[in-house]
Amino acid sequence: MSAMRRHRRRVALAGVGLLGALVFPACGTDIGGEPTRKEMYRTVTQALDTLVRSGFPGAQVTIDGPDGHRVLTAGAGDLATGEPIADDARVRIGSNTKTFVATVVLQLVAEGKVDLEAPIERSLPGIVQGNGNDGNRITVRQLLQHTSGLPDYLGGGDPDLTAAANTPQLRPDADEIRWAHYEPADLVRIALSMPPRFEPGARSVYTNTNYILLGMLIEKVTGRSAEAEIAGRILEPLGLRDTYFPDAHEIGIRGPHPRGYQETGGRRIDFTDLDPSWADTAGAMVATPDDLNRFFTALLAGKLLPAAQLAEMKQTLPWDRGEPVSGYGLGLIHHPVSCGKDVWGHGGSIPGFETRNGVGSDGTAVVVTVNQLPVDTAASDAVSKLFDAAVCAR
User: Which pTM value belongs to this model?
Assistant: First the structure.
């Protein structure tokens, strides 16, 4: 890949006060009354300002595309020092990990080593059994698209299950879970101690158990860990040097990074360090926004998958956590935006960090990063508005 010539224009906001301004190429007012590019980027800075006003410690938006590379930052990456989130900061990317895993699985499909329509029992015999769960009735495709019906080992996603008494689900914001170490088999065992949520294929309910099993599938088929396959098949070819899977028992984040915060019991606590083994191939990876944009841009440009497998990724269904017109494919989400662009990406949430990301059909790639999970619908909507403004600012 030839290196794109990049220019960096940075805005930093301390609290909600504007400290610097973007300099943009001159562009006239659209004759038809459409907003100019300068006006659209002003909308982005206003959305950043609103995000910090709504209570997030810090926020950052990273935009890559035909106009180059821009980073805009608001608030604090470290509340103790007041320092903003650095341009090259690494963060925990949560469920964006799923797209890396899905890409490897579909590469194996292209190589004839995995069959999307095969039952998971074929590759992982005896693993998905018990309490009505049956790997003979669940396909690889259903795992990728969250239509397996398997229960989630994590609490919070399925309101019906979370409300049940004495659930064995893990709550990763609990202190005892934060420092505990889990193997993939432990996570699957927790999930399978509960009955299935629905018949395989009946609907799409976002379930982390599916991607733990897909990580186990990769290891079974290739003889190497999912982490090693992701590194060899994606990170190294694309030169994503700031993206990695944490090592076993690794609790910190390597290199420059903001602090990640979590609201717990009405208190904001520093949640940067944790053992992410409970997330594993469903959400343990670390990356920079730059690397995330490069990965999703390469994926959607067909540089990681043949056309047939990329088309499979884009076959979406309505799902339980998306907006009404969004859809979940095979580890890929179709994001609706106000300007009508065709945007594909994923996103990730993990205590301390949330990322919203996508690539538009015009080649504009965006990552929004906040260093605390939204505490309510209004805060989540503010993140969505920033993402929408950034995607549409061209």
Answer: 0.90
